[in-house]
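Narrative summary of target 7.
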Amino acid sequence: MTAESPVQTVQRLFPLLAEGKAAEAATLFADSVSFSIPHPPGIPWVPEVSSADDMRTFFELLQTHVQAKQFDLHQIIAADEDVVLTGRMVSQVKKTGRDIDTAFALHTTVHDGKITRYHLYEDTYAVARAYFDS
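Modeled conformation, tokenized:
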């Protein structure tokens, strides 16, 4: 049996998240994870993350506070263990009912079949407006 490529590993993540399977999605991550999502202070769904268990917590918080509405994957760029995905996502903040409509880039690294890096770049101004603006 051929080992799964880093791209295949990362692509397994999105259907699990779409189905609300946070615990199963977290099994794709290594024991130690480099996590980064620049965000405004006070956003409740971005905790401190450094492990697969923390990723599960992050995914659960995300599901609690945000409802995914649209996810368009535009491009996957892969080199060795690194996989970068670009696209657009629209999510509704449950507290306010307002949408976050943002382009994104997600930089992941897969080592020995497990995701070790999850760095998401998105429009933080759109996030702040959807969560904080009245």
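The chain has a mean pLDDT of 95.
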